[in-house]
Amino acid sequence: MPRVLVIDDDSTVAGVVAAYLQRAGMDVDVVGDGVAGLAVARDHRPDVVLLDLMLPGPDGLEVCRQLRGVHPGLPVIMVTARGEEPDRVLGLQIGADDYVTKPFSPRELVLRVQSLLRRVEHAAVAQAHGAPTVPPELVDGDLVVDRVGHRVRLDGAELTLTTREFDLLSWLIAHPGQVFTRAELMSAVWGWEFGDESTVTVHVRRVREKVEADPGRPCRLVTVFGVGYRWDPATRSNGEPHGG
């Protein structure tokens, strides 16, 4: 039975969320602050964490950082009353898998949790069968993505990417020249059946800032206006650089 940890100082919201999750067949631990949440996560690893941004003591961002240190692959959904883009970006930067703004539908939140659980399960099954869908190392000119070591190097220098950024970059490089809508990327890369498509926009911008010489005029991760995004390889099939 999946275990969900709810960290929220609003007991009313936490109680409603817990009731819906329990009806969906999940075990739920509810705590009201980050210190207690971290203690529960250390003692009993949850399968998903619902984490409020505004908490007494260490806030949700700091708690998320510490959770990542204890359980690097732990799925985290940030829950907050603040919906401004800087808050979303910050939460996604530190590795949150999703971002839900209050007020929200408890049923929708349950579906998001279930979607994350399916993605984790599918990844575990694929790993157990030893059948990666793409090569362990992806090379595009001076950009190297080591999928086994979870490292990215650009012109020999190692880059720092969040898990979501790494997954997005890996997917796009493995499918050069193909255009994907934001909805398709959410589904193919992260296994999300629905959600805020602006999450993809945020991740695309973050990846561009790290791999493009001029993020304002990208030549690798390009926008196909009215459709989505495409990865243009750094070199042509004959080895000539773009523009050569």
Structure description:
The structure is a single chain. By secondary structure, the protein is α/β, with parallel strands linked by helices. The protein has two domains: 3-128, Rossmann fold (3-Layer(aba) Sandwich); 137-231, Winged helix-like DNA-binding domain superfamily/Winged helix DNA-binding domain (Arc Repressor Mutant, subunit A), CATH 1.10.10.10. 41% of the residues lie in helices and 20% in strands. It has eight helices and twelve strands. It has helices at 11-23, 34-43, 60-70, 85-93, 106-128, 163-174, 182-190, 198-211, and strands at 3-7, 27-31, 48-52, 76-80, 98-101, 137-140, 143-146, 151-154, 157-159, 179-180, 221-224, 228-231. The strands form three sheets. The protein has a five-stranded parallel sheet, sandwiched between helices. A four-stranded antiparallel sheet has the order 6-7-8-9, covered by helices on one side. A hairpin with a 2-residue loop joins strand 8 (151-154) and strand 9 (157-159). Helix 1 (11-23) crosses helix 5 (106-128), helix 4 (85-93) packs across helix 8 and helix 6 (163-174) packs across helix 8 (198-211). The protein is elongated. The protein starts with a strand and ends in a 13-residue tail after the last strand.
Gist?
The chain is α/β, with parallel strands linked by helices and 244 residues long. 41% of the residues lie in helices and 20% in strands.
